[in-house]
């Protein structure tokens, strides 16, 4: 049980950011951590990386508490939105510094990635644009070679070409040197094929925690004329529905019948649509 | 010819941001403006809105130059990344101020949108998170009711639920009160179904400018065993190709044959994949 998150609660002045969160992150698997802004994703990740303390609960890595534990903390790396280096440091110096902290950091690989992304390594970190600041941080993550790797919104501000490059590099890395990767992102559709296990949190609570395939089999989409569809939906667990010009589409929890009633059509849900449906469940428009 | 962009060139100290860009933006249509970071999209939009001056060329709106022309400028609104209000102003005061500048600004609608997005209108603009700063600006755009509307990265930092809400509101608005909308975004897949006309720019030059449907019919994807595919590709205009475990996929400019050769498979390209292919054309990995 490589990472055990036990009963974490974190309270800020007014708000409960995490509410008794327990999770197990297994070895050599890619996790998607999904949640809306303010759901508690970044707080969770920064507690795992011991950058914040919880009010209650603890995080164990290979059985050891991470808090104030250099031995455990050297096994993980969090690519977050904070820059941990002095901001007037140049990119190439930051790569060299990373090598001092993380002996497995692959300096030539980091430099080759900088070239691929056209990140100028003689620039100061503070002078990077939103997109290039993201690129700088995700290169650190791709090159650091710790057994546990956390990415918090790694592609913020990246264009489609650079996002695509990042996803391909991540898969390459994972194939060559398997490790535990947790990606927290709002671009759910783009990582749906990468994540083997999905964790969804809402308002500080875990609402889903299972293999992505299993999750996707737990609901389906059905579409048809509104009156007919409403009849079909009676007694079913409807997560969300929409009407566009007389045609209604609903997302339903459960397994569809072998054949849809005449006039209706079943289809598979995609992960992002399913996520949105779950988020809307208690917040209908 | 509502907006005529004539031969715009913009040079910054070292770089040519726009290189003789000419475009016509027709009435009551939704445009997608696509390009990588640094391609010149934001520069183009801010020149259209007269927030920057070009080195050469001009922008005409309904036949009048926009530069220093209040009459023309009141017909357009740019939702950009800059906040144009004093940053210690509260959101609700900013809405009221927008009404002074743009008489058609729909104040009750803006307030109802703030409620839908859970934007607290008694907050100062400066205190909003990245996501809520985006939400504040896109509400201004949705409520302003000018005949020309430009969105520059409107969904930066928004979670999937809020992005989905924005796209739906935009379509609703467009259906109720047609206008010319230009959306510049890196999340191409998400707007592919909304944009009727696509403009792609690369390194300051327009490389595509045509109806989205026409654009998508101009290329296709083909997949199969590498050796077989390479044989098929001989003499064809290959935009990009990838290998994953012996299976190769290529994006080809042109129209596919009625039937693929045995062992190969044709499929339609999606707009984001096509965009990435075009961007890679001269920058192979």
TrEMBL record, chains A, B:
What keyword terms does UniProt attach to this protein? ATP-binding, Nucleotide-binding
Keyword Cell membrane applies: no
Which intervals hold domain ABC transporter?
3-228
Q: Which Pfam families match?
A: ABC_tran
- Which InterPro entries does the record match to this protein? AAA+_ATPase, ABC_transporter-like_ATP-bd, P-loop_NTPase
SMART domains the record matches:
AAA (SM00382)
What molecular functions are annotated in GO for this chain? ATP binding; ATP hydrolysis activity
The source's domain of life comes to: Bacteria
Protein name (Swiss-Prot/TrEMBL)? ABC transporter ATP-binding protein
